[in-house]
Specification:
By secondary structure, the chain is an alpha+beta fold. It has helices spanning 30-37, 40-45, 54-63, 65-72, 117-131, 147-156, 185-195; strands at 3-4, 13-16, 20-24, 76-81, 86-94, 103-108, 138-142, 159-164, 174-179. It is globular.
Length: 203
């Protein structure tokens, strides 16, 4: 079940699920961000953000997620495992100048993939986008060879749309996806309940 946050989850909490808390990043998350952004899959499927040390990680947080919170009221959030209060990934809504609308973004540490956590976090993010941010649709872009993410997007109800060319001239064209109407709270709760008995093996 996915719920809106409450005070027991802290002032930065955006949403909660059975296993996860989605909350806003703080500078204290720099060690986690340093590790995540240098993971092999992050570098392969998302890109090199030039984060080489803790100072770089703090700057990434200030100019990325935290700046987005101030500018747009949303951004990438930390995904925290309730058991042990462990940061396992990030997930949220991005607002890119080069895209026609908000898009869903997520990344997880390798040891926390294959457990259904990405689906749980993205469904909670989509519910928040619909119920709180009042976003009627959502976009997503993904590398053509990122099969796990493509599978997840299809499971969430996204459909293929036009490809997206990154600003850099040598960047590979990314596959574009669109969720025409973000699911209602009841639809997401039912779908999440079903997913708990049929978790994906690659997300």
């Amino acid at each position: 079940m996915t719920d809106v946050s409450d005070e027991r989850d802290g002032p930065n909490a955006i949403a909660t699920t059975e296993r996860l808390i989605l909350r806003r990043f703080t500078l204290d998350d720099a060690p986690f961000v340093l590790r995540l952004l240098n993971d092999a899959n992050f570098l392969r499927f998302i890109g090199d953000r030039g984060v080489c040390d803790l100072s770089d990680a703090e700057n990434y947080l200030r100019t990325g997620p935290m700046a987005s919170y101030e500018r747009h009221g949303h951004g990438l959030n930390a995904v925290v495992l309730r058991a042990g209060n462990v940061c396992v990934g990030m997930c949220g809504v991005l607002q890119r100048e080069t895209l026609a609308g908000p898009d869903l973004g997520y990344a997880f540490l390798p040891e926390f993939t294959g457990l259904g956590l990405a689906e749980e976090a993205t469904r909670a993010t989509l519910k928040h986008a619909r119920d709180v941010l009042q976003m009627p649709e959502m976009l997503a872009i993904v590398q053509p060879d990122n099969l796990a993410s493509i599978k997840l997007l299809h499971k969430l109800g996204f459909a293929r749309t036009q490809d997206w060319q990154p600003p850099s001239a040598d960047g590979i064209a990314l596959l574009g996806f669109k969720l025409a109407a973000t699911p209602s709270a009841d639809e997401l709760t039912l779908s999440l309940h079903r997913s708990r008995t049929d978790r994906p093996t690659s997300c």
